[in-house]
Automatic annotation (TrEMBL):
One of its GO terms (molecular function) is metallopeptidase activity. The lineage of its organism: Bacteria, Bacillati, Actinomycetota, Actinomycetes, Pseudonocardiales. Residues 43-98, 107-161 form the Peptidoglycan binding-like domain. Keywords: Hydrolase, Metal-binding, Metalloprotease, Periplasm, Protease, Signal, Zinc. It comes from Actinophytocola xanthii. It comes from the Bacteria. It holds the Pfam family PG_binding_1. Residues 1-29 form the signal peptide. One of its GO terms (cellular component) is outer membrane-bounded periplasmic space. This is Peptidoglycan-binding protein. One of its GO terms (biological process) is proteolysis. InterPro entries: LD-transpeptidase_YkuD-like (IPR052905), Peptidase_M74 (IPR005073), Peptidoglycan-bd-like (IPR002477), PGBD-like_sf (IPR036365), PGBDSf (IPR036366), Zn_M74/Hedgehog-like (IPR009045).
Length: 324
């Protein structure tokens, strides 16, 4: 039987080892990171990266961030060349075949794809010049540390997967004003597709002269539970405020569809912009204006008198609530 002294020494050793393990394992690692599905109708930085990677593999594609017919054709050609299922949908198998291993000194479209991702996902301003220079290498190491993966400056499948999965942050200069009604701070993070689709919808709406679009909560940087919401955990839910007749929705406060200053026509235009910008990728829009509900533009749901809840979707997603 061990003596009390030996037991104390053994316990101290175990605690020291445990402490070492806790220190060496970052708390913000992304165990659920996956390659996000992209298909016809999606937009954003992940599509830009896809287009650069297709060009890297010899399937020249314009990097405009819009997954249109030309991109779908290039995807099918790439899938055929690699012996993959030819469906034009970029899922895990296609992403795995697309992403190369690159490191400092590399040049070309794959490096542009990397720089676009780092700028979007880490809110950087790297030149998208296709040169894996020292600044890009530093950004890669910083992201690897952030993601809790090996910090070596080499961009292989694990780094690509974590980077593509990571959420982006919308550009408020597109006509979005940031509102935090639930005290969640800048909980504006969402998937690159949701961000790209939202930004374009707001740009389109801006041309109507009805003011900016107030953004409530979307999600936290790495998803997960968000106070005041039963969803908003996977980067595909976005809350927006309805539009006012005085176009002062960003300065005069939130209203409901019953308010005297509610502008149904402008709110309808916003909803149509959201749907038209992301064809086939809007699962639903909760908002209780009975006229918009009757028109099939929104869906009635409790507690959605004063905001629009936009749920984007993908052709394939681990959570069935978010499949198109």
């Amino acid at each position: 039987m061990a003596t009390p002294r030996r037991m104390v020494v053994a316990l101290a050793t175990v605690l020291a080892l445990a402490g070492t393990l806790l220190v060496s394992t970052p708390a913000n690692a992304f165990p659920n990171a996956f390659f996000p599905t992209q298909s016809t109708g999606t937009r954003g930085a992940d599509v830009v990266a896809l287009q650069h990677l297709l060009t890297h593999h010899g399937h020249a594609t314009t990097a405009d961030g819009i997954f249109g017919n030309a991109t779908a054709t290039a995807v099918r050609a790439f899938q055929s060349s690699k012996g993959l299922g030819v469906d034009g949908i970029v899922g895990p198998a296609t992403w795995t075949a697309l992403v190369p291993q690159i490191s400092q000194g590399a040049t070309g479209p794959a490096v542009r794809a990397l720089q676009v991702q780092l700028n979007e996902k880490r809110r950087l301003a790297l030149p998208v010049n296709g040169t894996f220079d020292a600044a890009t290498a530093t950004a890669v190491r910083s992201f690897q540390e952030h993601a809790g993966i090996g910090v070596d400056g080499i961009v292989g499948p694990t780094t690509w997967r974590n980077l593509l999965w990571h959420y982006g942050y919308p550009d408020l200069a597109t006509g979005i004003c940031d509102k935090d009604p639930d005290g969640n701070g800048t909980a504006n993070w969402a998937t690159a597709a949701a961000v790209g689709q939202l930004e374009q919808a707001v740009r389109n709406f801006a041309g109507t002269g009805n003011g900016q679009v107030p953004l409530g909560d979307a999600g936290f940087e790495h998803g997960g539970d968000i106070p005041g919401h039963s969803s908003h955990e996977v980067g595909l839910d976005v809350d927006l405020w309805p539009i006012r007749t005085d176009s002062a929705q960003c300065s005069a406060g939130r209203i409901t569809w019953q308010s005297s200053t509610y502008d149904r026509a402008a709110t309808r235009t916003l909803v149509q912009a959201i749907r038209n910008t992301a064809p086939g990728h809007v699962r639903l829009i909760f908002f209780n204006d009975p006229v918009l509900v009757q028109e099939g533009l929104t869906t009635e749901y409790p507690n959605h008198d004063n905001h629009l809840h936009v749920r984007y979707c993908e052709r394939v997603h681990p959570n069935s609530l978010y499949t198109c």
